[in-house]
Every structure is written in C-alpha cells, then in structure tokens.
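INTERNAL AUDIT FORM
Audit reference: QA-55
Scope: verify that the stored structure record matches its stored sequence.
Auditor: D.O.
Record contents follow.
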Amino acid sequence: MAKLKFGLIVDNANLPLMLAEMVRTASTSDLYSIDCLIVQQPPVPVAASKTFLQKAALLLQPRELESKLRFRLFKFIVGLERFMLLRRPETSIYLQTTPIVDTGLPSITVTPEISDSGYVYRYTEDDLRNIADLGLDGLIRGGSGILKGDILSLCRFGVLSFHHGDNDQFRGGPAGFWEVYRREKSTGFIIQKLGDEIDGGDVFVKGSIGTQQTYLQNQIKLYRKSGKFMHLLLEKIARHGKLPDARTPVPYANPLFRFKPGLDVQAIYLWRYIWMYFMMQVDAVLGRGWRWGVSYQFVDNWQSAVLWRSTEIENPKNHFIADPFVIARNGKHYIYVEDYDYATSKGVITVYAVDQHGYRDLGLVLEEDFHLSYPYLLDHNDELYMIPESEQKREIRMYRCTDFPLKWELHRVLMSDIAATDSTVFEHNGKWWMFTNVDSANVEDHDSELHIFYADAPDSTEWTPHARNPVIFDSLFARMGGFLTDDDGQKYRVYQKQGFAVYGEAMGIAKIEQLDENDYRESIFVEIEPTFYKDIRGTHTYAYDQGLLAIDHLRWSRLHD
C-alpha cells in the first residue's frame, strides 16, 4: 500500500515545536508522509505616507490608541511568560524553533490574498496550480489565516486543521488564554476538515487536557497533545483509505473570543500572574503546599459510606500518604498506600494494619530507584498481586506477594516503553481488562486519556489495545481512581476530576454499562466533592474490600510537619 502524501501549510522559515514534532513523527510512519512545506508569505503592504501630524492624530483616536495599548500589553505578557520559561532548562525546550531548511523537506512559497480584516486567506490561481502539481492527498493547516476558496477542495482529503479550543465552548483566540483567564478546569481542542463555513467543518478528533496555570504553559501542552493526535488521525485515514465519521455538531452559544483581549482582562491576568509568582516564593520559604492524606472507616458497603465519619491516618513527618487500596486477610484489614518523601521527591509503597481500635504502620512494602504510587491490588487464584504506578520506568509492572503483607517480588513486566499511570486490571466476560492512563504525546499529561487493553490472563505480556482508544479523552473523567464491585457483581470505575491547576480536585464513580473489544460505555453513579472535611481541596481515590473503605484528600498545609 502506497503512503498517503500530505503537505503542511506554515507561516515562515521557522517551525514551532508542535510542527517540528509533527514532521519528525511523520518521518517514522509507514502509512503517510509529509512531502512538502507550503510557506505562506503574505504580500508586503504598501504603506501610505503620512505626515507627523496625521500619524499623531490617528494615534490619538480612542479606538486606535486602545488597540495599540492592547497589542503592546499582550506582547509584554507573552514576553514575560517566555522569559520565565526560558529560565528553566526543562521548559526552555518548548520555545525552540526549527528552521525549515533543517527539516530536509522541499518547500514552495505561496502569497495568499488577505481580506481587509486580515483573517481570511485566498490562494491565487498560480499558487493553486503549483500545489496541485505536487500530487498531494491532503493538506494540514499549521499556519495563520482562515482558508477560503478552491484550496479547501484541491486535495481528496481536503484541508485538515487544528482548532485549539473546545469549539463547543471557545471559538476565537488566543489559543489557551481564555481558559486560564476564566480558570476553566479543562482546555479542549479539535481536529477538523475545513469547510466553507467558519467553525463549521467536520470534526474528527475532540479532546481536552487539564488547564495549566499560565497561558503559554497551557498553549504549549495543548499544541503538543493535538499534534500527536493529528498523527494518529492521519494514520487512521491511511489505514482505512477514507476520512472517519464526523462528530455530531451542537449549537454554539458563547461569544467569539477576541484574539487580543481587552485592557481590563489583560490587567487582571497580569496581576494574577505576578501574585501567583510572589506567593510561590512565599510558600517556598514557609514550606507550605498541597499535602495528601488518607482516611478510612468500617462500613457495610461502599455505597452507604458517610465520609465525614472516617478516621484520618496521621501523615509521617516530612511525608504524605495517598492512593489507598485495601485488602482483607484472615479477618484482618490492611491499607496499602503511596508514601511520598519530600526529601527524596520519590514515592514508595507502605502498608497499615487497621481495626476498630485504630491503625498501625507496618512499614515499607516496595521500593525501587524510581517513583511508585497507586498500589492497585489484585487477588487471583489464591495469589495476591500489586500493579503500582511505575511510569518513571516507562513500564507497567506486576508484583507478587511472597510473604503477606510485607514481602513482594517483581512477577512480570506487563508492558514496556509506555508512559502510563494508575493501571487497573480486572476480569470481565471471560477476558482480562486493563484500564490505564497513557500520556500519548509525552507531555507529562496522564489526566486526559483513558486507554483500555485486553488479554487472556492478568499477567499477560500481550495486551491488545481497544478499538476506540482513548475511550475517554477528557481531563474531567479519564484518570483512574480505583475499581469497585457491588453485591450483585456490577463493576464500577472510580475516576478523578482535575481542577484548574489542582490535581485530583474531586472524583466520581461510574457504572460500567458495556465493555467489549469494540465498545465502552459508562454512566455516572455519583460524584464526590471535597466537602466531607471542612479544610480539604481535593479527593481522588476510593477503595473498598470486605467492610473497610479508604479514601484520600488534599489540604493546603506545612509540608514537613
């Protein structure tokens, strides 16, 4: 099968990180290629000569002055955020650009005709002929302008384009800004085939990530995540030889967001940014921050729990505990937790024995030279297994208990070379299913994508991906927080709800309605807000076994007490 050939429309001689990553990823695909860069070079406007007095009079017009100030202030905000990102090596890489000549791809230059508004781009007949001569199967819009005219139908798969915003909620721009300003919990994007109607194209991909604290951080993560899913879409088109079914559109009721926010909006945003940075320094000096904790209670079933009646386990000094999972053995109850040490910035697994009289720290269970958390427990064939999060190792590992409750050994590596967290394995209808949160784009985002795999045994090393992966692409529902069954054997998925710059702000429990190789459906059973204690801001794990329930919760406090 011949590779599909695509052209990438760009603006200038340097590719931003997202587009450079797309070019590199395409070079590894056996299904499609990016064969050419189409560089948009707008015509150079002929400036009308004006006298000094004419220029001064124009500048003093209220609308013109306000426009200039909006432009300058927004440029300052972007410059400030760029400076802060460039100060740290781990974030400066995201601002790097790649010269077109370094991609090794041929390029052609086009000069679109631009509308008076500056937004609508139409290609000339000469440019259209030059693009048609390339014999491309489709185009990818990575540059500016609302494309109109014959360019939209020049190739058989049309023009595929990003919209960096949830087009059901945010249309306009700047990409990723308004979600931060409005403190939205998630920031969305779509990939669509452009049509004649603005924002009316066929949408093939829709996803969302948790909103970051600052505009540029939010935009960078959004761009990189959407770039990965453009690659997956192109491979899907190549594999099936056609465009996938489009999503059903819904009415849009919000305003069109301005690309250059008003002065009042920018002033508020800038003040928040400065205050945030100031408070970060204060908190660092005072040793304050978000700190997780764990509570438990004995209850007949997990549905009837009254959470404020739980007993809280005191955090070890200079540590926090989180991600509780429970197990009953020989009439006794145990809670396995992530135990995070602030001094080493690493988690290990420890265990507590609990009864009606209190709790006792039994000590260390599992430690590696990488971070461990989410100690999911699986009881199978009279053996007890644990699948802790080992994302730093880029593996999904299964450990076997050799001497309960403290002795464990590595049993098998279920998957390798995968950035996955909170893996949860269970049996359903004769197959074993793994629910896990995969960071497809390697952008340190494990909150937005729920992936399902299936196999014939819980310790298999041959897991088949679900046909619809990611089955959920939404930071408000995707991340795992546990697994439950009721007295009738009905299965439930615990999910995390991420907040604005708050990890694990709340959680929910969803009833699994359908699960097979081709479909997955769930319905919300309950959502749990962090209101059961008066001073908490988050909760994200819910576990139960034979009368013992455990949950975790997030507080703002001193970190080393």
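Auditor finding: record pair retrieved intact. DSSP finds eight helices and 36 strands in the chain.
Action required: none
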